[in-house]
């Protein structure tokens, strides 16, 4: 039997042996402030393991996390800032961190409170990358009205774009339908907060954001394939405040974070309703100059859009497909890179973009920052897109055109709109994509940058006026801060 003095010496190790919990791969362990655990045993693995932590509450000072991969023996002291074998500190960024390495003999993860109390956190181990992490892809901003917002999650699943082949070469129907949805989609949620509340300064972790109450009410939530990239979650949030800046995060499976992105609601006087969820135009998710929706609806969808608008778009699409398939698409090649299916897909995007005119407003910071009339045919449009502010700094203006009630709408099949509005021009690249994808015989031509493109398109935003890819004023049609310079679907 050991002497009493030696028992006292080994007591800390015995305590660790009793309370150090073994972490299991793929299981997320939640630890609240009342827990006595301050270290956890990491499993052995021949391959690399990713250890991740996430703070579930806003706390200061921020605790520190240390790990060792020398052993997971219960007799091993907790790794810390000044002791332990092969100790590594896991740095946190916005409340979460991870460390990936080999654990041939297991390891130990420990938390140093750093003077904080009431720590609430999650820890996890995986051999497929960190469970707690920020996704590279951001949520996608559709558009807003004065009190609504259309937001999409990043793509979470793909679907096959079946390329038709000879001899049964058949293109998708003009009245397109959505693909079959995934059978087991991830758990995805949206969190919206007024930017003034400072949510982006709090822990950007799934467990923290999931505990926050989202601003507004989600009136429509569905899976939607808005483009050929894959499946997204689509939310229609209502009950927002006019002329207000908002911040949005998307949380996937409670541990993966996408965002933040920023957007602003329109002014209280803005009266263009949102249009979305059109299977034949899946990329349309923005405000359109239409009368108020019928039957008390707050937005337009495929179920309540006027038949004349729907039938015209589908008819144009059917006619174009008929012309396209007079070419022996399945047997002859007009390009080694694209085929008739690519041509039809890009034409659909362009047709939907010009058929559903987009309403917009200038930035609240620049209320007069719009073009009062279309550019002259000989203008490139760039001069109207740049304004010089204080100190000589240049600001880029959106391709907005003022439309009066007596003006003819871009799409004459849209019902009459009884108030002036600002029209956001389509990006010229939307047209150029059709030109590049389609065979010459269909006769599809886009206006040129240096002659008449700026009269009907936003020119020089994505590509330069000389056609250099992504070398325009902004390089993109819209950014994460809610700026939308020209319309692209």
Automatic annotation (TrEMBL):
Q: Mind listing the GO molecular function terms for this protein?
A: calcium channel activity
State any GO BP term from the record.
calcium ion import across plasma membrane
Check the UniProt entry and state the signal peptide residues, or none. Answer: 1-17
* Keyword field: Signal
UniProt KW Ribonucleoprotein keyword: no
**Do you know which InterPro entries this protein is assigned to?**
MID1/Yam8 (IPR024338)
Q: What is this protein called?
A: Stretch-activated cation channel Mid1
Instruction: Please give the Pfam families that the UniProt record associates with this protein.
Output: Mid1
């Amino acid at each position: 039997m050991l002497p009493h003095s030696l028992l006292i010496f080994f007591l800390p190790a015995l305590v660790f042996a009793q309370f150090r919990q073994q972490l299991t791969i793929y299981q997320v362990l939640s630890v609240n402030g009342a827990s006595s655990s301050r270290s956890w045993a990491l499993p052995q693995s021949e391959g690399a393991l990713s250890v991740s932590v996430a703070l579930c509450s806003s706390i200061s000072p921020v605790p520190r996390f240390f790990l060792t991969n020398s052993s997971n023996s219960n007799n091993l002291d907790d790794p810390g800032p000044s002791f332990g074998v092969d100790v590594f500190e896991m740095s946190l960024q916005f409340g979460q961190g991870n460390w990936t390495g080999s654990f041939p003999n297991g390891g130990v993860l420990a938390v140093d409170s750093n003077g904080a109390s009431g720590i609430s956190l999650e820890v996890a181990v995986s051999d497929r990358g960190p469970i707690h992490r920020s996704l590279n892809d951001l949520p996608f901003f559709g558009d807003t009205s004065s009190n609504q917002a259309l937001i999409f999650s990043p793509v979470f699943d793909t679907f096959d774009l079946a390329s038709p082949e000879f001899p049964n070469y058949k293109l998708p129907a003009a009245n397109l339908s959505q693909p079959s949805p995934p059978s087991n989609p991830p758990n995805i949620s949206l969190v919206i907060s007024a930017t003034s509340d400072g949510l982006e300064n709090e822990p950007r972790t799934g467990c923290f954001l999931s505990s926050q109450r989202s601003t507004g009410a989600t009136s429509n939530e569905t899976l939607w394939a808005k483009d050929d990239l894959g499946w997204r979650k689509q939310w229609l949030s209502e009950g927002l405040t006019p002329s207000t800046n908002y911040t949005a995060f998307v949380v996937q499976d409670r541990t993966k974070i996408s965002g933040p992105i920023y957007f602003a609601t329109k002014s209280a006087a803005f009266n263009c309703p949102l249009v979305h969820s059109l299977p034949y135009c899946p990329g349309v998710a923005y405000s359109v100059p239409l009368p108020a929706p019928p039957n008390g609806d707050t937005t337009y969808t495929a179920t309540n859009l006027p038949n004349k608008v729907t039938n015209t778009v589908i008819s144009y699409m059917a006619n174009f497909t008929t012309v396209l398939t007079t070419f022996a698409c399945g047997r002859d090649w007009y390009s080694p890179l694209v085929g008739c299916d690519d041509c039809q897909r890009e034409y659909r995007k362009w047709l939907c973009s010009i058929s559903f005119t987009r309403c917009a407003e200038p930035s609240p910071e620049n209320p007069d920052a719009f073009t009062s009339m279309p550019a002259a045919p000989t203008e490139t449009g760039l001069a109207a897109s740049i304004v010089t502010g204080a100190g000589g700094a240049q600001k880029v203006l959106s391709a907005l055109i003022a439309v009066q009630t007596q003006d003819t709408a871009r799409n004459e099949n849209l019902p009459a709109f009884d108030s002036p509005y600002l029209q956001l021009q389509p990006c010229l690249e939307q047209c150029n994509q059709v030109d590049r994808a389609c065979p010459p015989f269909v006769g599809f031509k886009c206006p040129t940058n240096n002659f008449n493109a700026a009269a009907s398109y936003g020119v020089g935003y994505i590509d330069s006026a000389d056609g250099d890819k992504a070398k325009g004023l902004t390089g993109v049609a819209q950014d994460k801060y809610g700026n939308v310079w020209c319309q692209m679907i």
